[in-house]
Amino acid sequence: MVTSSASGVAVERGGSAAAADAAPVAQPQVKRSPWWVEIGVIVWLLWVYDATTDLAPLRLNLALAHARGVLHLERTLYLDPELSLDRWLAGHHTLGLILSDYYDNAHFIVTLGVLGYLWWWRADLYRPLRNVLVLTNVLAFIVFWRYPVAPPRMLHGFTDVVAASGAFGSWHTGSLASHANQLAALPSLHMAWAGWCTLAVWRITTRRWVRVVAVVYPCMTALAVLATGNHFLFDVLAGLLTLAVSVLIVRLVIPRVPSVTKLLRSP
Question: ∠ at Cα 73 (62, 161), nearest 5°?
């Protein structure tokens, strides 16, 4: 009886231990990154962008030559929808105004909105996705500096639909024009940011309708940037490629460098 009882106790204790082992281990809550760190990152990116903007007037002829080269390559490959879309949109003023307002404002509002949501509600996803977005911008800035490309609207035969429509918050006319790099068509940050938003929303939710909207968003952005004469098709593809490279670096390369990993995970 004693042995049986002892065995029973042993079994009960073993079962408790197994249950304890099977229980999920509580994960430490990820702390929200300090707001002043995030503001500092944005200010630094704006400073780097401004530095590339200052170089733009000195590279106009080079950027125009590169733009003509991109268009020639697209035409050789029969992948040049920009001119047809631009002429079509230029003939529809109301739609041109809508797409121009979308082009000028949506990428700021949507991207900052998604970024703010992640920072406030999903700190567990925020840092890696923020790192992808920052790296995407840095890689694009390097290309802007090393290989400036003028947008199609600066070439003969194209219409600057944004300027012609008088869009709200236009970066093509008025005082805002001097603060924008007009020779930064390749890669398209509009597309890179839109793709990043889709990636972020896909991680945030599993709701089908929200994911559908997230996929439609970069498609609308592609239409807007092409039809308004602001980007070539190659710019659009290059923007998505820049985003993809950034994702691979953040996921595969950075974790292999302990010092960088520690820095990016710190507040």
Answer: 70
> Alpha-carbon distance 263 to 191, whole Å?
28
Q: Cβ contacts of residue 16 below 8 Å, gap of 6+?
A: none
Number of helices and strands (H, E) in the chain? Answer: 11, 0
Collapsed DSSP state (helix, strand, coil) of residue 149: strand
Q: Hunting for tokens 């968003």 — which residue is that?
A: 217
Q: How far is CA 199 from CA 192, 211, 234, in A?
A: 11, 10, 21
The answer, yes or no, to whether residue 16 has pLDDT greater than 50, is no
Query: Residue 179 pairs with which residues in a beta bridge?
Result: none
Helix (H) or strand (E) holding 243: helix 233-248
Rounded to whole angstroms, how far apart are CA atoms 195 and 221? 10
What's this model's pTM, rounded to 2 decimal places? 0.83
Tokens encoding 98: 């809508």
Amino acid letter, 70:
V
The SS3 call for residue 166 is coil
pLDDT at residue 255 tops 80: no
Is the sign of the CA dihedral 194, 200, 205, 206 positive or negative?
positive
> Burial level of 175, CB count in 10 A (0-12/13-18/19+)?
exposed
CA–CA distance, 171 with 149 (Å, rounded to integer): 17
